[in-house]
Amino acid sequence: MMVKLEQLLIFFIAVLPSATSQNPITCDQSCPGGQFPTVPYPFGFNSACTIQLNCTSNGDVLIGDFSVQQITSSYLLVSLPAKCGRSIDTLMHLYSEHYAPLSTNGIVLDNCTEQQMRTCMISMTKLRTDPKIANCSGDQAGEGRVSCYSSDTSTTSMFLDYKNVTRTGCRFLFSGVAFSLDVQRVRLGWWLSGTCNCSVDADCIKIVYPVDGSNGHRCESRSEGDGHKTSSGSPSLKGMRNLL
Ligand SMILES: *[C@@H]1O[C@H](CO)[C@@H](O)[C@H](O)[C@H]1NC(C)=O
Ligand SMILES: *[C@@H]1O[C@H](CO)[C@@H](O)[C@H](O)[C@H]1NC(C)=O
Ligand SMILES: *[C@@H]1O[C@H](CO)[C@@H](O)[C@H](O)[C@H]1NC(C)=O
Ligand SMILES: *[C@@H]1O[C@H](CO)[C@@H](O)[C@H](O)[C@H]1NC(C)=O
Ligand SMILES: *[C@@H]1O[C@H](CO)[C@@H](O)[C@H](O)[C@H]1NC(C)=O
Fold first, then answer.
1. Nearest ligand, CA of residue 164?
2. Owning domain of residue 211
3. Do residues 84 and 115 share a domain?
């Protein structure tokens, strides 16, 4: 025991300071045991990564409590399973300075003061007759309680407006519907901070972050690599086609 403690002390005194001063930490992109053994640039699991996600001990890649199902060069597909009584504020976990729900998603809400179903990709009848939704509201088929939010068709915004979603008078976030009827999932668009900085063979997509109006961008490569100048050496999306 004493020996072990001594060794530990020596480690902290002698090894750690030199390790931290000589080798700045690098981005850890591996999350063993799950769907993504490694994630592509700019994602990773420590503070050295441009966009930090969480990796659980069983290999789930998480944003808040929501598991990431797919990572592409323009969006993250995140699971938003149907659940009663989940506070609408939970939606905020899907907004960060590097990603936000795209305006092509529908957000299914519950315990609403009024019913304001818009054209939300999924039919109202389907929602009303869903046994899980009926159970949530506790009343017959959940009528007048369940609502689905989607962006104005006239909107030019790339992202769902958080304030508009929370202004609906609903208290619970029931589920999501991603573009093309992918139920219980939402797509988050992602970006890097600052103005365009892409390699010559990439197109730059300009992004305006809806929460504070700040500049962002994403590079879409026309050939090999991920199109970002700053990503050299990292596993890139193009090299990980099998994961997409
Ligand atoms: C990862 O987990 C930490 C600690 O629980 C939390 O503060 C952080 O917001 C999480 N990040 C994401 C992307 O969910
Ligand atoms: C929904 O809201 C009403 C009041 O608006 C409340 O009485 C009811 O308990 C809520 N339902 C659930 C499942 O919390
Ligand atoms: C909904 O309620 C019915 C009747 O109470 C029950 O049989 C069913 O298992 C419930 N379904 C869910 C998904 O909770
Ligand atoms: C948010 O709501 C305002 C006011 O109704 C509307 O003008 C705007 O287009 C909405 N934004 C989005 C992204 O739907
Ligand atoms: C663009 O990326 C290069 C390569 O990492 C970096 O040296 C440069 O500072 C970046 N420029 C801007 C404007 O971010």
1. 4
2. 193-229
3. yes
Q: How far apart are CA 156 and CA 174, in angstroms?
A: 26
Q: Of the candidates 158, 167, 183, which has an alpha carbon nearest to the alpha carbon of residue 108?
A: 183
Which atom belonging to ligand 4 lies closest to the Cα atom of 157?
Answer: 13
Find the 227 Cα to ligand 5 centroid distance in Å: 13
Report CA(132)–ligand 5 centroid distance (Å): 50
Going by alpha carbons, the residue nearest to atom 12 of ligand 1 is: 63
Q: Would 50 be classed as within a structural domain?
A: no
For residue range 108-166, what is the model confidence (pLDDT) as tens digits?
888 888 766 666 777 767 766 676 666 676 654 445 578 888 888 787 889 999 999 99
Q: Provide mean pLDDT across the span 14-18.
A: 48
Q: How many domains does the chain have?
A: 2
Q: How far is CA 71 from CA 8, 67, 145, 169, 241, in A?
A: 40, 11, 34, 32, 10
Phi, psi of 193 (to 5 degrees): -70, 155
Query: Which residue's CA is the closest to the ligand 2 atom numbered 4?
Result: 111
> Which of 185, 205, 238 finishes a domain?
185
For ligand 4, atom 14, the nearest C-alpha belongs to: 151
pLDDT digits (tens, 9 = 90+) for 35-71: 999 999 999 999 999 999 999 999 999 999 999 999 9
Question: Does residue 85 line the site of ligand 3, with CB under 6 A?
Answer: no
Q: Return the amino acid letter for 13.
A: I
Residue 183, ligand 1, Cβ within 6 A: no
